[in-house]
Design brief:
The protein is α/β, with parallel strands linked by helices and about 260 residues long. The protein has 8 helices and 7 strands; from the N terminus they run H-H-E-E-H-E-E-H-E-H-H-E-H-H-E. It binds S-adenosylmethionine (SAM).
Length: about 260
């Protein structure tokens, strides 16, 4: 069993713009259900805590002070960028105008602008830190997003990345389920996400532009040093709902995170 045996699930290089637009509309509908109060209650405390932890972690690799420029791409209505205590904050999201109209978070402090990661509206080597969490599988062109991040990140800058990954057999079944749903139900499976990645997909995409300096798998369900430890822990897990699917390569929505530096060309 392993995430590395996913050659037959390599990512399709780009989905169509139409497919991305469908995801974009459904994303807006999803956030329409929330109010500032309900979102604050749901996640603000968690983001505040996470922002503090990240700053401490980043300090091991980069100088952090009030001049440090941090960009979050696909920041959603509320995320860590809204809660960093020091640093100069910037954020972009294709739904920025909708978020500004609907929610009362302090978007001036995060310089929120409407833009996609495929065209980041800043000059080369502008940022010290770039954050991309829970976004790459929502984008239209993941490779272009990573190229843009490489362009606007300073030479010694830090790229903080997180995304869900799925085991090999989960992806195979999802593919078949998606086809059946389209044919018989005229519906799109996993409509918010134009992409679903295996660990291998993500690491090969990222490694084209960046060097991974620290990584973690499965943080959402515990803290592990590496994937082997994660698998061993899963085996030990008493919860049958995790143990059995993981053994058969059927486990999904596992968080992958890494810190990266730019590959020097
Ligand atoms: C699941 S939300 C994540 C929001 C936030 N990061 C969080 O974890 O709560 C995905 C976000 O990605 C944004 N997004 C979709 N396509 C994008 C693109 N091409 N470039 C940047 N952001 C994009 C969506 O508008 C949405 O706000």
């Amino acid at each position: 069993m392993g995430f590395s045996e996913t050659k037959d699930n390599q990512i399709k290089r780009n989905v169509t713009l139409k497919r991305w637009e469908i995801a974009h509309i459904s994303e807006e509908e999803y956030w329409e259900e929330y109010t500032t109060e309900s979102l604050s209650k749901r996640s603000s405390e968690r983001y505040k805590k996470k922002a503090k932890i990240l700053i401490e972690e980043w300090k091991k690799y980069i100088k952090i002070n009030s001049k440090t420029k941090v960009l979050q791409i696909g920041c959603g209505p509320d995320d860590v960028i809204n809660h960093f205590p020091v640093v100069k904050k910037y954020s972009i999201d294709p739904l920025a105008d909708f978020y500004k109209k609907k929610f009362k978070f302090n978007y001036k402090s995060t310089n929120l602008q409407k833009a996609g990661g495929e065209n980041i509206p800043f000059k080369d080597s502008f940022f010290d830190v770039i954050v991309l969490t829970n976004v790459l599988d929502h984008t239209h062109m993941p490779e272009k997003v990573l190229s843009e991040i490489q362009r606007v990140l300073k030479k010694e800058g830090l790229f903080h990345f997180e995304n869900y990954i799925f085991q090999r057999n989960f992806l195979r079944i999802a593919k078949i389920w998606g086809i059946l749903k389209r044919i018989f139900g005229n519906e799109i499976y996993n409509v918010h996400h134009p992409y679903m990645f295996s660990l291998q997909d993500l690491k090969s995409l990222i490694s084209e532009k960046f060097s991974i300096i620290k990584e973690e798998v499965g943080r959402d369900i515990g803290n592990y040093e590496n994937f082997q430890e994660f698998e061993e822990n899963i085996k030990k897990e008493r919860k049958i709902t995790i143990k059995i699917p993981a053994r058969f390569g059927l486990y999904g929505s596992i968080n992958y995170s890494c810190f990266c530096k730019k590959n020097h060309i």
